[in-house]
Amino acid sequence: MQRTTDNITIRQGDTAVIRCYVDDKVSRVAWLNRSNIIFAGSDKWSLDPRVDLVTKGQLEYSLRIQKVDVFDEGSYTCSIQTKQQAKTSQVYLIVQVPASIYKVSEDIIVNEGSNVTLTCFASGRPEPAITWRLLNPSADPLDGDEYLDIIGIMRNQAGRYECKASNDVAMPDVKYVNVVVNYPPTIKKTQSSETQVGRMGTLQCEATAVPTPEFEWYRDEKRLSNSQSINIQILGTTTILMIANVTDEDYGNYTCVASNRLGVQNASLFLYRPGTGRDINGSSCVSAPVWLLLSCIAGLFFKS
User: Fold this and answer.
1) Tally of domains in the chain
2) What does the alpha-carbon distance between residue 88 and residue 35 come to, in Å, rounded to a whole number?
3) Residue 216 in 3-state DSSP?
4) What angle do CA 96, 102, 106 make, to 5 degrees?
5) What is the pLDDT of residues 220-242, one digit of tens each?
6) Residue finishing a domain among 138, 160, 183
7) What percent of the chain has a predicted confidence (pLDDT) above 90?
8) Structural domain span for residue 172
9) Do you find a cis peptide bond into 126, omega within 30 degrees of 0?
10) Rounded to whole angstroms, how far apart are CA atoms 13 and 10?
């Protein structure tokens, strides 16, 4: 008896044709899967409607399996019997499955400094490789597989994370996780105002924070609000204090306070008469929990 063995690799869902050729001296032929007879001659023993024969004249006796699935993987034998000898041709069918992500972390919101673990699980044959990227301008690969650990997450690590599963069977499967990082306000820009009497004075304060900060304006100990002479505008992360028809009494120090539930920061700005040369950059207290900043704010209120 002669025996040959080959491997055929096929992708799940495709059609597999397992070739077998005979000559005109063959008396009997059959197809077997493991020990189960699929075809004996032209008689079909299998009940699977996906399976049929491919014959071209009397010289080809090939087996066709449509919509191949993982349970089709295994050994297939073409058994050929002639008057002189028996010969078998054995083929091992390998079924590959494209990578598919079946579970990924939900979008999350965390506080800056927290430890974060993102998960991404995928199936496929061969087993897929999993890679992570943060979709920022560089989008460099991150060190992680099924688990991506971020120790002490910072605000610049917020964004959209991409999990990619690939095994070269088909296009990679990709899923995304949005990570929001909360952090206390930081006042990054202030603009004092050199304004003549009778003109409009404008003070501007810009802060970054997540969640978006709330703003308040103070003059000495008094919180300011909209009135006939004062107009306060809040445009996202920027607040503008406009003082109409400036008088001598309006000159001096003003305090911008930006706060969210994680902390507060304030900055001192100045409305000053032209030529007095006041420091227009102002000063600010560092971000911290609200109760730690009370003394800092009070110091600004009573600043001479």
Assistant:
1) 3
2) 13
3) strand
4) 155
5) 889 999 999 999 999 999 999 99
6) 183
7) 76
8) 98-183
9) yes
10) 9
